[in-house]
Amino acid sequence: MSDITSQSLFELTSNIKEKKLSSEEITKVFIDRAVKSKKLNVYVTDNFEKAIDQSKKFDSNPNFDLKLPGIPIAVKDLFCTNGVRTTAGSKILNNFVPTYESTVTQNLWSQGAILLGKLNCDEFAMGSSNETSFFGNVQNPVGENLVPGGSSGGSSAAVAANLTPVTIGTDTGGSIRQPASFTGTVGLKPTYGSCSRYGIVAFASSLDQAGPMTKNVRDCSMLLEVISSFDQKDSTSIDYKRNCYSKELSKDIKGKKIGIPKEYRVDNMPDEIEQLWKNGISYAKDCGAEIIDISLPHTNYALPTYYIVAPAEASSNLARYDGVKYGFRSPGQNLIEMYEKTRSEGFGDEVKRRIMIGTYVLSSGYYDAYYLKAQKVRQLIKKDFDDAFSKVDAILTPSTPSSAFKIGEKTNDPVSMYLNDIFTVPINLAGLPGISIPAGKDKNNYPLGLQVIGKPFDEQNILNISYALEDKINFKNDISDWWLSE
Amino acid sequence: MSIDLKTVKHISKLARISIDDEKANKLKGDLNNIFEFIEKLNELNTDNVQALTSIAETTLRFRKDEIKSENIREKILKNSPEENKDFFVVPKVVE
Question: Do B27 and A305 touch (CB under 8 A)?
């Protein structure tokens, strides 16, 4: 049997069901490795003691019919966990202990999973490098001083470093797919309305979705099957029949029409990414898919649209952090001063920047010029995809315009940081499902990802295409464990 | 168009985030860079485009208007920065 921490979710669940491994054994091995992996800074809060108790409890009365039987899982610190501190990577929630559980995490525990701890992320999920976290940056296990991507950077690093079998992240503009691409892992953003947003710290409510982050496509299908559910507590949750994604997973994609959008060939894109894309196209052809050139003419307007819509929603959502009912409070002479000091000291620079952008675009006299304009362009972006999907079943693009960059390289230039999400943002604006799978490496041996985009609620199709491509690509991450301490 | 220091201070007031002059100047630069990037949208004529208001074309659901009597006062107050028995405490508001 291979080393426990490097096993896939599929292998671990099989080994538990066949009684070759116990939940306690698995849980302890992951905790041991986490203790030796402090250098990566993936954990904000651990739940190790309780996790061991729960694993013993599972073993004493195991239920092997569950989909995640006794499997320890760490989750992004954006999901509210009952009784376990939830910070969203922010000072303002440094002491916040939820008294309720997010629906998505509840779905994990209901299927037998055990909480290992809460994973680092950009503050309020605003960032593409995990450098905006109040709890410090995360190291990418792929190489020292590299960012793991963001905002689900602790999550992507934890999966790549074998610190959790799988995890869940959230994706507002690429926060699952970009870090997956940077760490050689798989990340899927479901269709808007597929996974409940109840109990997830809100960033931009019309864009936020939770999704699985895993070592491979099969694990991704298994986890999506657990977390996707209709939920009365989220007014935008959609009631539809969800597939049994893992059971229906198939490499047969013969005859599938895959679109290649010409607008994703951006200026200054490294040749390696162009080549990666070409390889992906030829693998898809080898699998019997039909390749069709398509156009998504408003692609270039997606990022400017996003940087109006997302900050506008964020400025409204983050108005609740006022130091009155929960979270950090800085005292003031009067109520207004208390608000202003609390928010000034409690939020980091990137969050303040976005609140300011959002406040400005929603302010009197500017609403039509910015917010309304952006909502109109968003309609055009969505229509581009509607038109494309009348001709094709899925779309194949690179996940990111570059591989992982160095820590500190882009922190002083917000716009260059924002450009990281150029290929992922349009998918959120249109509410579509998208998955990033590892597809190759650049000259530095850093992973690069390909993105498969699907029609609304067609997760099964993009999983199947990814499953077929994964088989052809045969990606190996070969991470050296350079960060381990004794 | 460009955002001046006075506007930055005005936005910070609206957003209830106090900032000093040094931070305000830095923010002025950042915001102008970001808005320069956003201005790209003006290339597009959107006169006849309906604004997108909801990505999932669903109507909001109704639920029964029922009292769910659950005593959650303690839960609600659990994370409060300052409390006095059953209330949140804030600086004096009424003179």
Answer: no
Q: Which of A192, A110, A119, A104 is nearest to A154 (CA)?
A: A119
DSSP A84: B
Catalytic residue among A175, A221, A403, A436: A175
pLDDT over 90 (residue B54): no
Asked whether the beta carbons of residue A333 and residue B61 sit closer than 8 angstroms, the reply is no
- Is any Cβ of chain B less than 8 angstroms from the Cβ of A308? yes
Q: Residue ranges of the domains in chain B?
A: 5-43
pLDDT at B69 over 60: yes
* Residue of B34, B82, B88 best to disrupt the A interface, most CBs of A under 10 A: B34
**Closest Cβ opposite residue A335 in set B37, B51, B93:** B93
Say whether A241 is catalytic. no
Q: What per-residue confidence (pLDDT) applies to A412?
A: 85
pLDDT tier, A364 (very low <50, low <70, confident <90, very high otherwise): confident
A419 band by pLDDT with thresholds 50, 70 and 90 = confident
- Report the amino acid identity of residue A351: V
Q: Alpha-carbon distance A272 to A435, whole Å?
A: 20
- Whether residue A377 and residue B90 make contact (CB cut-off 8 A), yes or no, is no
Q: Is A76 a catalytic residue?
A: yes
Query: Are A30 and A116 spatial neighbours (Cβ–Cβ below 8 Å)?
Result: yes
Task: State the residue for tokens 């659950």.
Answer: B70
With b for 16 or more beta-carbon neighbours within 10 A and e for fewer, the A286-321 pattern comes to ebebeeeebebebbebbbbbbbbbbbbbbbbbbeeb
Q: Which residues of chain B does A309 touch, with a Cβ-Cβ cutoff of 8 Å?
A: none
Q: Is the Cβ pair A323, B81 closer than 8 Å?
A: yes
- Domains of chain A by range and CATH? 4-257+461-473 (3.90.1300.10)
Lowest mean pLDDT among A233-247, A447-461, B58-72: B58-72
Q: How many Cβ atoms from other residues are within 10 Å of residue A403's Cβ? A: 25
A257-261: strand order across its sheet: A167-171, A209-214, A186-189, A434-441, A447-454, A394-398, A257-261, A290-294
Please give the Cα distance from A341 to A321 (Å, whole number): 11
Burial A95-132 (b: 16+ CB within 10 A, else e): ebbbeebbbbbbbbbebbbbbbbbbbbbbbbbbbbbbb
Please provide the DSSP assignment of A266-323 as one string.
Answer: -TT--HHHHHHHHHHHHHHHHTTPEEEEE--TTGGGHHHHHHHHHHHHHHHHGGG-SS
Would you say A5 and A37 are in contact if contact means Cβ atoms under 8 Å apart?
Answer: no
pTM over 0.90: yes
Rounded Cα distance, A439 and A181, in Å: 9
Is position A175 annotated as part of the catalytic site? yes
d(CA A371, CA A21): 54
Q: Give the pLDDT band (50/70/90) at residue A71.
A: very high
The helix (H) or strand (E) run that includes residue A159 is helix A153-160
The verdict on whether omega for the bond into residue A196 sits within 30 degrees of 0, i.e. cis, is no
Q: What is the ipTM score, two decimals?
A: 0.94
Two tokens, residue A162 = 């074998």
Tokens of A91: 């000072």
